[in-house]
Amino acid sequence: MHPTDRLRRSAWLGALLLAGHAHVATAQNAPGITATLEAASDERRRGLSWSDGEAVLRGSVSVPVADGLSLDGTATTLWGSNRHGGADAVLDLGATYARDLGGFRLTAEGRYHLFPGASNQGYGEVGAIAGFTLGPANLDLGARYAPRQSAIGGDNLYLSTSAAVGIPGTPFTLSGHVGRSSGDVRDPLRAARLRPDGNYWDHGVALDWYQGRWSAGLRYADTDIDAPNSVHAGASLIARVGFTL
């Protein structure tokens, strides 16, 4: 590895560990704030690896500011991601508003994705999720939309359905999802960031363990993207471990 790359990676690792320490201190002094520090074998979103298949560190914090409204931030190492113009990390910044109506939970969110270490890569999206809980199980229907932006070569719509159930008598939760990415293409090269083979489906299943503040999990992810365009988009098994304040 080139010395500059090694220094850059060390700097991001130190920044994330410092952020995690700051989140811990904040959470201990501000009720309602939650913070999490995780390590994972890949950063895979909607079936696509954002970290070129490399392991990542992730720090996140959620700050409630009003009834049902929270401000959220997540920082994830990307180690010079080819998918995102050589970005060293992704910062997901935004807000979430949630309301319970009967047995339903309705959520609206807005996010902006920043990519330190790369130029002209940032983009924003909005989303809505409707969830229903029945005993230990819940079902979510979601839609997330990134309006037309030059950084993603057009617009992008992601529709998904997911389900999760706690396994009775155990600390395990089993979940699965199916999603569909589509959108208008204005710049094919930039649009390939989020849709390398045009419109596509992704799916996955996960088994997660929760014990106190600790959690761990295994997730299987795959897409229907054709082989010539399936670099970091094929079947993968991802492991993670995390600690939440």
Characterise the protein shown here:
The strands form two sheets. A twelve-stranded antiparallel β-barrel has the order 1-4-5-6-7-8-9-10-11-12-13-14. A two-stranded antiparallel ribbon has the order 2-3. It contains two helices and 14 strands. Residues 1-30 have low confidence and may be disordered. The chain has one domain: Beta Barrel (Porin). A hairpin with a 5-residue loop joins strand 5 (69-81) and strand 6 (87-101). By secondary structure, the chain is mainly beta. The two termini are 35 Å apart. The relative contact order is 0.14.
SSE blueprint:
Layout: H1 3-29, E1 34-40, E2 44-45, E3 48-49, E4 56-66, E5 69-81, E6 87-101, E7 104-114, E8 123-134, E9 137-149, E10 154-166, E11 172-182, H2 188-191, E12 200-211, E13 214-223, E14 236-244
Antiparallel strand pairs: 1-4, 1-14, 2-3, 4-5, 5-6, 6-7, 7-8, 8-9, 9-10, 10-11, 11-12, 12-13, 13-14
Keywords: Signal
Pfam families: Gcw_chp
Organism: Sphingobium limneticum
